[in-house]
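A reminder from the course coordinator: this example appears on the midterm review sheet, so study it carefully.

Given structure:
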C-alpha cells in the first residue's frame, strides 16, 4: 500500500485498503454511505467493514453518474441525514465514481455546515482526481459544477481492486485526467503511456498503479499549496474550459474524461497558436490521446454554443475568458482574453464535419 499525503489527510492506494476505513470514522456513532447502483458490491464491502467495527450504517443510494449531481438528490440525502438525526460527530462516506464523491462531498460540506467526509473512489478518474483535493459540487441548469464547496476529506481510500469491475470506457475516461497530469507536471506519465498504451488500460497490470500514484502525487502537490484555487490550482483545469462546455452541450451524456480529452487538444492548439507552445509538444497531445482511443474532435457547428458556455467557466473574470495553456512540457501558464478569432482558429483543430 502507498500513502500520499495531502495537507492533513492521506490518499491510500493499493488492494484491500478498506481496512483503514473504521479508523477514519472513529468516534462516529452513525456513518452514511452514499453510493450509486453500479457500485453496490463495493459499497456493501465498505458497509460490512464499518459494521464489523461496530458503526451504525445508513446506506443512501443515489442516481448514477451526472444524474446524481443534482440539487434534488443532495436534498434527498440531507432529508435522510435529518431523519436519522445525524450530528456533528457522525460521518459521510462516498463510494463510487467522481460524480458520487462530488455529491457526497457537497452533502457532507453543507450538513450542519460540515461533517466528516471519507471518499472511496471506485473509478480511475475518481482515484486520480475527483476524490482527492476537496472540490465538491453539483451541476445546475447554468452549467457544470457551478454550485459547490471546497471541503477536504478526512481520508481517501483507493482500492485498486475496484477497477476490475469498471467498464472499459470509464477507465479510458480516467486516463484523460492522467494524461492531463502528464502534460502539466509529470512527463514520465506520458512516456509510460506512449511506450505501452495497452498496458495503461489494463486494470490488473503494473503500469496503471504507477499512473495512479504519479497522478495523485501531482494533484496532492498542487492542492496542498493552493486548496482554494487562488492561482496554482488552476493548472488542474487544463483542458476543462472547452471540456465542461462540451459536457453541458451534450447534457452530460458525454463522459467527463472524453470531453476533457477534446479540451486538451484545443488547449494545446491555443498554446501553439498564441506562440507559446512548441508545435511538437502540441501535436503530442492529439497523438497520445488518440493512441489510447480517446476522442479528439467535436462537431464544427457546435462552436457558437461552446463559446457561449465557456463564459460561465470559473476561471473567467468578468467578460475575460482565461485558459490554462502550456509554455512547454510541464510548464503551465495562463492565457487571458484571447481574441474570438484565435479561439475559433484553435477550435478548427478539433472541429469535425
Ligand atoms: N472534484 C474534483 O476535483 C473532480 C475532478 C475530476 C472530475 N470530477 C467529476 O467527476 C465526475 C466524473 O467521474 P467518473 O469518470 O468517475 O464518472 P462517474 O462518477 O459518472 O462514473 C462513471 C460510471 O462508472 C460507474 N462506476 C464507478 N466505479 C465503478 C466500478 N468500480 N465498477 C463498476 N462501475 C463503476 C459509475 O457508477 C458510473 O456509471 C464528473 O462529474 C466530474 O465533473 C470532479
Ligand atoms: O481539482 C481541480 O482543481 C480540477 O480542476 C480538477 C478537474 O479535473 C475537475 O474536473 C474539477 O471538478 C473541475 O473543477 P471546476 O472548478 O472547473 O468545476
Ligand atoms: Zn476533470
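Designed residues:
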Amino acid at each position: 500500500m502507498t500513502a500520499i499525503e495531502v495537507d492533513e489527510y492521506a490518499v491510500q492506494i493499493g488492494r484491500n485498503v478498506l481496512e483503514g476505513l473504521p479508523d477514519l470514522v472513529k468516534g462516529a456513532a452513525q456513518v452514511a454511505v452514499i453510493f450509486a447502483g453500479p457500485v453496490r458490491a463495493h459499497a456493501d464491502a465498505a458497509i460490512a467493514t464499518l459494521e464489523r467495527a461496530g458503526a451504525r450504517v445508513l446506506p443512501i443510494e443515489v442516481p448514477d453518474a451526472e444524474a446524481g449531481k443534482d440539487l434534488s438528490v443532495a436534498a434527498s440525502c440531507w432529508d435522510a441525514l435529518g431523519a436519522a438525526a445525524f450530528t456533528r460527530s457522525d460521518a459521510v462516506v462516498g463510494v463510487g465514481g467522481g460524480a458520487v464523491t462530488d455529491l457526497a462531498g457537497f452533502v457532507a460540506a453543507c450538513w450542519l455546515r460540515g461533517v466528516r467526509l471519507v471518499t472511496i473512489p471506485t473509478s480511475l478518474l475518481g482515484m486520480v482526481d475527483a476524490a482527492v483535493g476537496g472540490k465538491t459540487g453539483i451541476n445546475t441548469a447554468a452549467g457544470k459544477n457551478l454550485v459547490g464547496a471546497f471541503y477536504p476529506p478526512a481520508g481517501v481510500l483507493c482500492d485498486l481492486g475496484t477497477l476490475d469491475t469498471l467498464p472499459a470506457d470509464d477507465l479510458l475516461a480516467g486516463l484523460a485526467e492522467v494524461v492531463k497530469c502528464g502534460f502539466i507536471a509529470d512527463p514520465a506519465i506520458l512516456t509510460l503511456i506512449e511506450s505501452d498504451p495497452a498496458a495503461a488500460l489494463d486494470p490488473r497490470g503494473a503500469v496503471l498503479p504507477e499512473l495512479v500514484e504519479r497522478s495523485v502525487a501531482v494533484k496532492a502537490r498542487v492542492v496542498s499549496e493552493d486548496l482554494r484555487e487562488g492561482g496554482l490550482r488552476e493548472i488542474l483545469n487544463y483542458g476543462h474550459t472547452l471540456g465542461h462546455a462540451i459536457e453541458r452541450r451534450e447534457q452530460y451524456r458525454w463522459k467527463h474524461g472524453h470531453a476533457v480529452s477534446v479540451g486538451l487538444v484545443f488547449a494545446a492548439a491555443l498554446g501553439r497558436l498564441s506562440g507559446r507552445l512548441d508545435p511538437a509538444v502540441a501535436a503530442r497531445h492529439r497523438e497520445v490521446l488518440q493512441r489510447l482511443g480517446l476522442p479528439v474532435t467535436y462537431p464544427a457547428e457546435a462552436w457558437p454554443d461552446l463559446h457561449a458556455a465557456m463564459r460561465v467557466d470559473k476561471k473567467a473574470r468578468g467578460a475575460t475568458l482565461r485558459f490554462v495553456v502550456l509554455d512547454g512540457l510541464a510548464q503551465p501558464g495562463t492565457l487571458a482574453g484571447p481574441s474570438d478569432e484565435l479561439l475559433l482558429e484553435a477550435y478548427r483543430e478539433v472541429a469535425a464535419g
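DSSP finds 14 helices and 13 strands in the chain. Residues 207-225 form the longest helix (19 residues).
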